[in-house]
Each structure stands twice: as C-alpha cells, then as structure tokens.
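Sharing a chain and its predicted structure for anyone who wants a worked example. Both blocks are below, sequence first, tokens second.
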Amino acid sequence: MRFINPIPFVRDINHSKAFYQNRLGLKIREDFGNFVLFESGFAIHEGSSLEQTIWRQASIGEEPYGRRNLLLYFEHEDVDVAFEKIAPHVELIHPIEQQAWRQRVFRFYDPDGHAIEVGEPQSLTPPRNS
C-alpha cells in the first residue's frame, strides 16, 4: 500500500484548472475533462461527477467544497516571488510568516475554499537546535 495524493472536489473544473495552472504554475499531465492530473501528482476532480461515481448521486447544494479541515501544501524555491505572483489574485488567510519550525509560508483559499499553503522547501530552513 502506498499513498498517492488527495483529490479535492471542485465546482467548476475549468475555473479550478486555470487557477492551479495560472496562479500556482502547475503543468497539466493529463486532462480528462472532469478530472485533471498535474505533473506534480496533484489532481482535481469535478465534484458532482465524482459524487455520482462514488455515492451514486450528486449533492444538490452549491456550498463550497472546502471545509477548513484540509490544507493543500505546496513548496516554492522563492516564497517571496510566489507570494507576489499569487497574493493579488486570491483571498489570503495570511501573508508570509515564519512558523515555529522556522519555515516561511503563506496561506490562501482556492476557488472552492480549500486552504492552500505555499512554503519554502524544508531543506532551506535551518535545523532546529534541540
């Protein structure tokens, strides 16, 4: 058994695909219409079709899929450059902050309300003194 990746449900696959391509710079590996797999292994799936596949019925509601109980984590070699590119186009949770483990990150919401964190690679953070 090995874990592959989470697959967030999205309301508008084209809007979300453009968001992840244009805002986060992800490149598409395969696009099946209602399912998009990016080169990094991250994937998104149009929610109502996936609900139909899994539970044999789509939900009726239009509420966002994001529920503030999942954080999608990405890394960028230059978190300052990523922030400048992404921040003007998203609903920020917070700007760049240094975390207790000394990594610099910022967080925001995607179009479906999923929380996203972009941080500098862990290998760039100095080791903690124990």
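Comments welcome. Helices lie at 13-22, 47-55, 79-86.
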